[in-house]
């Protein structure tokens, strides 16, 4: 193991992306020995679930539970359930929650409390703002930022759209932690809408799909280092960049489009393919990461 390359711990940031986030998990397996100790994780949407699975050491079990659930699921939409009060037309919320719950019930929540923190970004609509209009503007701004290839989401948020960062260590129960993870991933109709204190929660990726901003300020300060794993094709700087506070950032992204939709919960073989692709792609990223982590020795 080459983990001693840099004694100073780092922060690791995971992008969202639904099923695409398995690319980042495959890449992590190949890059892990080059990483110094991870002091904290930051993630959004499905990346939060991945970060928690990794930092608790339960990723293999998490992936297997998800693959088993997806293998049993025959469709991404069940039209006959549209008017059902018992069964949801879209099975994603149940599968997503069920996968996370299965892990937390196996001692995972205790491991979450004992491991390094995972900071998660959650966006919300402020009380008094219309849900449909505010959501539409937020999605439009997000798409414009994507077309501009912005690394960290829209420069200006839609009126009424806010966000907050939560730490896994602050969750008081497995149920609360699951709600936070799903809140960070909220994209109706795939996941149900959650509300609290007059706020309506939405996917944190509408604000920033590579959520460095969810890290505490001291983790973004001069002298700190941050590695971002982005589970989709995205033009990224060829050299390390800096946060406004002074930390160095290395961006590592998938080099090609990933052949799976983010909410495709019917294709376990594709999930495995994306995971294996992450491992293959990461081999070419090893020299870049090695140079970054050893630069301050």
From TrEMBL:
Location of the PNPLA domain: 12-216
GO process terms (BP): lipid catabolic process
Segments crossing the lipid bilayer: none
Coiled-coil annotated residue ranges, if any: none
InterPro entries assigned to the protein according to its UniProt record, in alphabetical order: Acyl_Trfase/lysoPLipase, PNPLA_dom
Any Pfam family: Patatin
Motif DGA/G per UniProt: ranges: 203-205
Record: active site: 45 (nucleophile), 203 (proton acceptor)
Keywords for the protein's UniProt record, in alphabetical order: Hydrolase, Lipid degradation, Lipid metabolism
Molecular function as annotated in GO: hydrolase activity
Listed name of the protein: Patatin
């Amino acid at each position: 193991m080459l983990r001693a390359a840099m004694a100073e711990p780092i922060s690791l940031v995971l992008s969202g992306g639904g099923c695409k986030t398995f690319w980042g998990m495959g890449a992590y397996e190949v890059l892990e020995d080059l990483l110094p100790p991870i002091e904290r994780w930051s993630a959004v949407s499905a990346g939060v679930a991945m970060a928690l699975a990794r930092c608790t050491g339960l990723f293999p079990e998490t992936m297997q539970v998800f693959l088993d659930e997806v293998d049993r699921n025959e469709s991404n939409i069940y039209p006959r359930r549209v008017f059902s009060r018992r069964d949801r037309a879209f099975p994603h919320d149940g599968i997503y929650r069920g996968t996370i719950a299965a892990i937390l019930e196996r001692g995972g929540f205790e491991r979450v409390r004992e491991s390094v923190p995972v900071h998660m970004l959650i966006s919300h609509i402020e009380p008094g703002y219309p849900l449909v209009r505010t959501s539409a503007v937020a999605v439009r701004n997000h798409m414009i930022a994507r077309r501009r290839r912005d690394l960290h989401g829209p420069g200006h948020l839609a009126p009424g759209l806010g966000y907050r960062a939560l730490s896994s260590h602050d969750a008081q129960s497995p149920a609360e932690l699951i709600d936070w993870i799903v809140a960070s991933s909220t994209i109706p109709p795939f996941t149900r809408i959650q509300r609290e204190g007059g706020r309506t929660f939405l996917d944190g990726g509408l604000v920033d799909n590579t959520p460095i901003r969810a890290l505490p300020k001291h983790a973004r300060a001069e002298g700190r280092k941050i590695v971002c794993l982005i589970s989709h094709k995205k033009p990224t700087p060829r050299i390390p960049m800096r946060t406004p506070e002074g930390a160095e950032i290395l961006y590592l992204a998938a080099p090609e489009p990933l052949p799976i939709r983010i909410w495709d919960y019917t294709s376990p073989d594709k999930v495995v393919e994306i995971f294996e692709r992450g491992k293959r792609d990461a081999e070419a990223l090893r020299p870049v990461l090695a140079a970054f982590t050893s630069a301050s020795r």
